[in-house]
Amino acid sequence: MSESTDTSVTVIGAGIVGICCACYLQRSGYQVTLIDREEPGMQTSFGNAGGISPGSVAPIGMPGMWQQIPGWLVDDNGPLFIKARHFPKALPWLMRFISQSRRSRVLEISRALTALNGPTFAAYQPLLEEADITGLFHKTGQLFVYHTRQNMEKDTFTRELRSASGASVEYLDSKSIQEIEPALAPIFEAGYLMPDNGHCKDPLGLAQALAQMFVDKGGRLLKTEVQDFVFQTEGITGLLTASGQLPATKVVLAAGIWSRELCLKLGLRVPLESHRGYHATLEEPGVSVQRMCFPVDYKFAVTPMAMGLRIAGTVELAGLEEPPNYNRARKLVDVSRKLFPGLCTEKYTQWMGHRPCLPDSLPVIGASPRHPGVYFAFGHGHQGLVGASQTGKVIDELIRGSELSMALQPFRIDRF
Ligand SMILES: Cc1cc2nc3c(=O)[nH]c(=O)nc-3n(C[C@H](O)[C@H](O)[C@H](O)COP(=O)(O)OP(=O)(O)OC[C@H]3O[C@@H](n4cnc5c(N)ncnc54)[C@H](O)[C@@H]3O)c2cc1C
Hints:
Elements: E1 8-12, H1 16-27, E2 31-36, E3 51-52, H2 69-74, E4 80-82, H3 87-99, H4 103-117, H5 120-131, E5 137-138, E6 142-146, H6 149-154, H7 156-164, E7 170-173, H8 174-180, E8 190-194, E9 198-200, H9 203-216, E10 220-223, E11 226-232, E12 235-241, E13 244-247, E14 251-253, H10 259-265, E15 273-282, E16 292-295, E17 300-305, E18 308-317, H11 327-339, E19 348-357, E20 364-367, E21 374-378, H12 384-400
Parallel strand pairs: 1-2, 1-14, 2-10, 4-18, 6-16, 14-21
Antiparallel strand pairs: 3-9, 5-9, 6-8, 7-8, 11-12, 12-13, 15-18, 15-19, 17-18, 20-21
Helix pairs in contact: 1-9, 1-12, 5-9, 5-12
Bound molecules: flavin-adenine dinucleotide.
Flavin-adenine dinucleotide (FAD) binds next to helix 1, strand 2, strand 15, strand 19 and helix 12.
């Protein structure tokens, strides 16, 4: 621990990112208070697709993608939807997103994602072992399949980025796709396996088990809403919460999409937009899927989970207040019927969550340049489960004042 005698840290947000920060800080000997207005893991970390992929190093915005956006918007089954009345609010974000998707910038972003996501399994490992939940992770690879070879060729740059990060990519023809994943319809001409990727079979169970371990080891879990920050000349001294004022001299803001509002209280405007995503989890799918699969032409994921087969995807820009449109979850199910013959879709649960996205697909991680004692760990977008473990590790290193295991410059809050 650093020379500072103050050994307490408060983490705002008990999603997977805040929980990993709290666990890592606790391992270093800090007295940690973890605050959430809900039970741990009940927001975006509840229903994600469970993908854990060190090879997730391509940003969402890729060169030339903007040309596809108009087509997606008029396609009712398309992977992107923008609610008309949200469009004026989303427009500045979209313009930044497009400007970040040029090739030279994508190469820089990919290097930063490699540093953050590459060590995902290694950074989770000590936490999983301590909580005795290593069985939640399956390192069975991830399978990417395409209807045609030409479609796969359109994604060449993505695969190049993955290979450049050191990830293995094994190419497959239609016969070998059938051999390794017989439940898939024989309609995919080409694909590839990333054998070093995997998935978590119960993302909520992961968040809950780590939060429980944190409490069992003496961590303080507080259920209340953080409303504001309290400062004196030396820096932060407390938090204003729905239950009153709380002393705090070191604070980690890890409140997912809701970090945007809390940043405004700090006078910081962060371009954080919700990519609302949906899932349908088929309780009795009637087919056996061995590993996480991406039918890439449809831009969603299919993951074998402890509670059934989860189909997750779509990006909907509609803000935080609009009610979920579960037609989107239903469409995921409808399309999946064609991809997995024999899929039983009678019983399923559905869900919508807010991916906290910055225009360059990189989160904000680091110390506030203007508020001594305030640290940021939010905005992990489509890859928060992947990035949470290394984020927790590096936030702990930063607060301890120890050597950092990755450079934080690409993740600074004032980069836009
Ligand atoms: C459909 C879908 C599929 C996905 N698939 C994957 C995947 O396969 N792999 C992957 O890596 N990622 C995936 N993601 C993304 C991933 O789920 C998110 O990046 C991740 O859950 C974000 O975690 P978080 O801790 O930052 O946010 P959250 O889980 O949203 O946690 C933030 C917490 O802060 C609390 N909070 C907010 N404001 C306050 C306040 N004022 N006071 C107190 N508490 C507050 C909230 O209650 C919440 O619990 C997916 C997301 C979706 C929607």
